[in-house]
Amino acid sequence: MTVRRKSAGLLVVATLVLGLWSASPAAASPGWGVGNYMWFKPGSLPTNGTLRTYTGNSQALYMTAGSGDGTGDECASFHGRLPNGWYNLKSPYYHSDNKTGTVAGRSWQLSDKQCYNGTIRNDLFIHTEQTSTNEQYCTSGDSPYCWDDSNDYKSVGCVKASYPNNGFPNSIGVLDSWWHSVGGTTGQYYSFILYVGSPSPPQIT
């Protein structure tokens, strides 16, 4: 997965609401079928979408998240945001607490998605910018392992959540804690864990 580039001058304030989160899952498994899933609602910019989680069909978390680099075409590989629809986890990574490689640290690898024009979008993740030990490695340039500013919400098509650096909230940390609270484990397959779209999460079709 190619690391995204930043555009200077864009600032979006991250928000994170934790008060609705309950650590008592309705069922010990992630997935739409038991009401434990995520919903990413794209924003007007690639840096101001929202990511919500649901426990037993009740909203648990609400946070700022981003996807894409600004192009309006969701079928543009390695540029557009995640296409609308439901996503499963994908082998071989599923959910990983310490993944090495371009996408390091806590991440969820999502299933490929066919766009309306037939393009297959792949290399899709939910992740942040951190090292494989869930920390920060910041350099003078644009490090893929350091949360510098709101432009880090941009991606090549993934969903990006913030790391608690430079005053940003610990979105990736509470997302990971929620996942485990509903019975999610590392290295396991789960279906219908994320819905992407502007309306409220629909029924599976």
Keyphrases for this structure?
single chain, 205 residues, mainly beta, L,D-transpeptidase catalytic domain-like, ten-stranded mixed sheet, two-stranded antiparallel ribbon, 1 helix, 5% helix, 25% strand, disordered N terminus
- Fill in the CATH topology: L,D-transpeptidase catalytic domain-like
CATH superfamily: L,D-transpeptidase catalytic domain-like
Helix-strand pattern, N to C?
A: EEEEEEEEEEEHE
Mean pLDDT: 87
Number of strands: 12
What portion of the residues fall into strands of 2 or more residues? 15-25%
What does this protein look like?
This protein has one helix at 171-181; strands at residues 16-17, 37-41, 49-55, 58-66, 85-87, 95-99, 105-110, 113-114, 120-121, 124-127, 159-161, 194-196. Mean pLDDT is 87; it is low at 1-25. With 205 residues, it is mainly beta. It has a single domain (21-196), classed as L,D-transpeptidase catalytic domain-like. Helices cover 5% and strands 25% of the residues. It starts with 15 loop residues before the first strand and ends in a 9-residue tail after the last strand. It has 1 helix and 12 strands; from the N terminus they run βββββββββββαβ. The strands form 2 sheets. Strands 1, 2, 3, 4, 5, 6, 7, 10, 11 and 12 form a 10-stranded mixed sheet that branches. It has a two-stranded antiparallel ribbon with strand order 8-9.
